[in-house]
Amino acid sequence: MKLKTLLAATALGALMAAPALAQQITVKAGVLNDRSGIYADLSGEGSVIAARLAVEDFKAAEKGIKVEIVSADHQNKPDVGSTIARQWYDQDGVDLILDVPTSSVALAVSQITKDKNKIHINSGAGTSDLTGKACSPNTVHWTYDTYALAQGTGGAMVKAGGDSWFFLTADYAFGHALERDATAVITKAGGKVLGAVRTPFPGTDFSSFLLQAQASKAK
After folding, report:
1. H or E stretch including 13?
2. What is the pTM of this model?
């Protein structure tokens, strides 16, 4: 009877303490993305608003969880993104980093996150290396990647008759991964790659590169 009484008292104490423990849960999430450049429209402030709406939909406050959302502009530069990630983790108490478009920045942030044993949930970068050679137990990659783009769009275009390709490849991690993954799909399906040229990122004038593509077709 004494043992049963002790167990019952322990269980009751745990139940009474649960709400108090829940009130102590705090999460600080950082939305790190392009807020002023080429990807600002598809991520930027919209991603910050979406994160706050997700917290509201989850009703975190009603569950005794305090969530703070902070944001910063990585300017599509790995060194800038890395500096922000380190400061967030080391000084600002950020628990996880979200979004991170621009694959070169995402790869850098993923490595820092692993080193700091934090969490990186990526929905903005596309390179399949995030779940390939740079796979990390601390990074969750979802939404899309270059493998999916290559298998879906690339594969469908070859089957539809588009079997000759020339790549104008954005000269950073995403472009390199997409060219690699698409080339594998194209050649496997019986298509051929006539050539490729690396284009500056970000860039707006592709006229000289298009001329090179046209010349390769003429050959």
Report:
1. helix 2-23
2. 0.82
